Amino acid sequence: MTPHHNRAFRLALVLPLGLLAGYFLLLLGGQAPYLNGSTLRAELSSSTLLDAIRLSLVSATIATLAALAFAVPAGYALARLNFPGKRLLDTLLDLPVVLTPVALGTLILMALNTPPGRFLHSLGLTLPFTVAGVIAAQFTVVVAMAVRMLKASFEEISPRYEQVARLLGCSAGGSFLRVTLPLARRGIIASFILCWARAIGEFGATVMVAGTARGQTATLPSSIYLAMSAADLSRAVVLILILILISFAVLFLVRLVGGRRP
Amino acid sequence: MTPHHNRAFRLALVLPLGLLAGYFLLLLGGQAPYLNGSTLRAELSSSTLLDAIRLSLVSATIATLAALAFAVPAGYALARLNFPGKRLLDTLLDLPVVLTPVALGTLILMALNTPPGRFLHSLGLTLPFTVAGVIAAQFTVVVAMAVRMLKASFEEISPRYEQVARLLGCSAGGSFLRVTLPLARRGIIASFILCWARAIGEFGATVMVAGTARGQTATLPSSIYLAMSAADLSRAVVLILILILISFAVLFLVRLVGGRRP
Amino acid sequence: MIRAEQLRIACGDFRLGPVDLSIPAGSYLTLLGPSGAGKTILLEALMGLLKPAAGRVLLNGEEMAAQPPERRNIAYLPQDLALFPHLSVQDNILFGSRVRRLDPAASRDRLAELVAMLDLEGPLTRRDISTLSGGEKQRVALARALLPNPQLLFLDEPHSALDAGITRQLQIKLRQINRELGVTILHVTHDQEEAFMLGGQIAVLIDGRLQQLGSSDEIYYGPANLSVARFLRHQNIFSLTVAERLPDGRMRLRGELDLVCASGRDLPVGTRVAVGIRNEEVTLIRPDRPVGDDLRDNLFAAVIVDIFGFGGYHTLVVKIRESPATIELNLPNCAFRDLGLGTGDKVRISLRARSLWVLPPDDGEPRGQHSYMEG
Amino acid sequence: MIRAEQLRIACGDFRLGPVDLSIPAGSYLTLLGPSGAGKTILLEALMGLLKPAAGRVLLNGEEMAAQPPERRNIAYLPQDLALFPHLSVQDNILFGSRVRRLDPAASRDRLAELVAMLDLEGPLTRRDISTLSGGEKQRVALARALLPNPQLLFLDEPHSALDAGITRQLQIKLRQINRELGVTILHVTHDQEEAFMLGGQIAVLIDGRLQQLGSSDEIYYGPANLSVARFLRHQNIFSLTVAERLPDGRMRLRGELDLVCASGRDLPVGTRVAVGIRNEEVTLIRPDRPVGDDLRDNLFAAVIVDIFGFGGYHTLVVKIRESPATIELNLPNCAFRDLGLGTGDKVRISLRARSLWVLPPDDGEPRGQHSYMEG
């Protein structure tokens, strides 16, 4: 902003930025040699690839919707209510954000062997090597992040709006539905998009819970792993291209909605 | 905050929060049956496990320090300077945050086959199945996140401090070193801790670039994967326990420093 | 109609109260205090947005502790107005009618009445409230608050972001709402000029305590204690001792100045007191004019040591001869020009005995707190 | 010593200028304007913190475009002060000495001098600046700014967060710094009372344009155009037409009021003009007193339609008989009490011919912009 930066200082700032940009451009461009029209067409007609795309889209959408169903009330409760143990709860919900997904996935598997896990199994819920397992893994990784984001969104909305709504005649629930929720709309949509992107990209927890069964539980990231294991570079490149396009679309949509950055 | 929430509304808010807390407590507690004192002692004296711990700590520290070396000037440049193409650059640096690490790892491998990659190889840098590969993977996943965090930290510091320092006689570089950097100290430390935690937990990119060679490139998350593949539950539990302890330590330190949340 | 009894509020480190306050139906009470005095917190407790630590709030004699804010029939205009940004101007104004499910025809009539009263014909058709000017936003928020026929209207520094001309118009509207619609108003402000201009009773809140309650003149000329005096910018405050009680009931005070004062307080000889007088009440005696009877008591020779211009008036700082005391006085510009005064000039000044206020120093007990009770 | 020539600044959507302004060495110039007028942006351009879109800044006759802020020897006190939170009070004050590598002994002497002048003996020993009071922070920031012996001191609304008493003390300190240390001061404020009180020249900036430059009295009684008049809260503004030029050089104006005025402007008969007068300059004729010579010209019978009290004075709104015009006038409380006036009372008022200002309406050309040039 300030003019009169001398050239050496400006260079010391801009050079690292330029090197980083060059590095990421190299990463994005390095796949080009492996890509051509005919392999692209061939891959895009492969049924296992289409299965992976379909599974990723469906599971990420379900997992994110389920996460928001919990995160909207939970985020609002953390933003507005005071109750004993709130700080402890807050820390507990930070943990899954910091813990590696591989560990989270393993913990899901182990939890299946507890009484509540066995009860769910008796109801017909099977997670290992199933689509339900993919969804459970993505939900677990994404839900704490969703609570964080929505808490921040609700905190940005001045409580004055709700107070004024109350004095105009709304109950607490009414002021939430009529005022807070509409005002948080952009934040909720942005959280959905970013959590969905995180779910689409989820690998560690998904692999641990549901494995990488081709055509069954192989999501897009798992399919890259499988393709590279089989040294099938052209398939890997097509999968990466799809994920890059999804990522750009996500960034574009988040800016359009005007939510906070990832 | 506001009193006079009716009971049903309060329940609708607190119930999802309670269910989430219960779920994560179940995940944390579900490992307990697999844990006892003797296996803990046995595992902690295993050299492959100690190798994994050592590798994770060393590689995450180097990768994070390298990332900050780029991210401090780059974040400051994005926060304060205006230059053509800044928005494009900003989007480019958002991409690695949204893209799945599996894809990033694969892109690193493919970039090794480009002219700059071959040039680095001729200098003796080998990434596949090496510790250097682990560090490169962690650096790549973490650096864009570090730029984001530091940009936010610098943006929180009012430019007035630098302006006043300039009028008191500082050059642009002098005001950065004497004023901005000390004021950003907490933000930089918090970014270091959070990026380090992310590097410790990194799995997708590391697996793709460096593999999971036991005792050589197997980090803590990779070791969990290996242990679960070999159905060695007690080792997996010990590894998870270590990662949970690291995560709690990270959360504690970030709060102590007073930085922003993960 | 609304009454606080021994109300105490704890909010973080801040403690407010105990406050006893009663606002009769139809009155206009201004709650005046510096920022941080707890004015907003007191409003919030009366509205049920904040749970008091102790004490009671009564509305029309009925205890309110169990009543949520939506059952208190109080209208609220917060400082930031909090117009709903996702609703049009008309939907904002009708919000209260819809959530209370009032009769739509009656609400339309009420809307038309408020639109006419508040000159909202133009703004009413706007879809986006962010296109309104500051003054229009104020009037829309006022219409929204008044639509459900509230008994009470609470205003929290509604004019702090507006320029002086628009503020004046809105102040006149508020007096009109109070008189014509019969709405009882509690108006919070930190602006002394605004508090005096609104013309009703004034309650002074400083450091979480209600320090004084009275009419504009009572508050302006007779501060209840030294913190009120300082907040109300009294510049001439002296620490003196009661030396003698005169036969006519007045007191002779001695110290850095020897003064006669006509305070109604019955203070024994020897009491240390704080004495003050408003700048405008200090009289500069024109050299060519005779000294009036009421100016003879506290007549001093003095020297001008500093002069400050303030646009419409000048403030002279004068040092009393044969005393260390300095006194400030204000002169309208026309008088200042006529007299042609400069620094170093010798003047005579008089402190009218009936214009002096007298307080025991460290007057712990706030005055007038109970003087404004109902009935 | 500092001069802006045809300075234009573009900052986002905001356009400032062209500004021509020159501040002679040793002077005290107040830059007065509403928030959003561009005051801070103008300061930043003069200091080299913002690159002007066009025009020049000269310091002691030298063009500054290539000089970074650290070479301009200007001290800056921003609104938020920007005391360095990671440094102790003493390290804050000595910051300029250290980065400029000034002689430590000389800096210590300067520090002692400033500490004495600004009463900083107590605060100087503090390690944590967050423990200082608002007024102490101001004085520490002032000491830090003054330590490297600046030629110029730029202040950006330094008192906006302080209470009235502390503000007064700091204003007196600033006048002392200007006179005793010989520092040229450019003081930005939106507070009219402060601008008039500081007593130097006043530059009025509204909507990114320098509207007027002159002494307190020139600005207060003779606004250069209608936007200055409105900003300075002129309440009595009438739109009239020049009807006749009288032999004594005065003008007769007709319209909603018939007035004689003594403007120095040479306006042809038929020109539409805006005419105004300050509330305090409107004279209420006491019924028992003879009408002075200078009050005979614009004498009107009127009826009081509204009365507002403002603590120290009252504002009367009167309607002129046989005219639609209303006029506001201020009365000191003592006069108001003596007269015992109420709404509906009949009074006589006079608008002194020499107190009226006259402007061609839509006066596009700001006045006085070049009247304050060096030498």
Structure description:
The complex is a heterotetramer, with two copies of chain A (262 residues) and two copies of chain C (375 residues). Chain A has 262 residues and is an all-alpha fold. Chain A has 13 helices and no strands. Chain A has helices spanning 7-29, 37-44, 47-80, 86-98, 101-111, 115-122, 131-156, 159-167, 172-183, 185-201, 204-210, 220-229, 233-257. The two termini of chain A are 24 Å apart. With 375 residues, chain C is an alpha+beta fold. Helices cover 24% and strands 33% of the residues of chain C. Chain C has a six-stranded mixed sheet with strand order 6-7-8-3-9-10, with helices on both faces. In chain C, strands 13-12-11-14-20 form a five-stranded antiparallel sheet, with no helix packed on it. The N and C termini of chain C lie close together (10 Å). Classes of the chains: A mainly alpha (262), C alpha+beta (375). Chains A, B: It comes from Geothermobacter hydrogeniphilus. Chains A, B: One of its GO terms (cellular component) is plasma membrane. Chains A, B: It is a multi-pass membrane protein.
List the quaternary state of the chains: heterotetramer
Estimated share of beta-strand residues of chain C: 25-35%
How many strands in all of chain C?
20
Beta-strand segment tally of chain A: 0
Instruction: Calculate Rg of chain C over CA atoms.
Output: 25 Å
Alpha-carbon distance between the two ends of chain C: 10 Å
Number of helices of chain A: 13
CATH architectural type of the largest domain in chain C: 3-Layer(aba) Sandwich
Order of helices and strands of chain C: EEEHEEEHHHEHEHEEHHEEEEEEEEHEE
CATH class of the largest domain in chain C: Alpha Beta
| Share of helical residues of chain C | 10-25%
Continuous helix count of chain C: 9
H/E element order of chain A: HHHHHHHHHHHHH
What name goes with the CATH superfamily of the largest domain in chain C? Answer: P-loop containing nucleotide triphosphate hydrolases
From the 3D coordinates, which CATH architecture of the largest domain in chain A would you assign?
Answer: Orthogonal Bundle
- The main sheet of chain C orders its strands as 6-7-8-3-9-10
Uncertain segments of chain A are none
| Count of spatially separate domains of chain C | 2
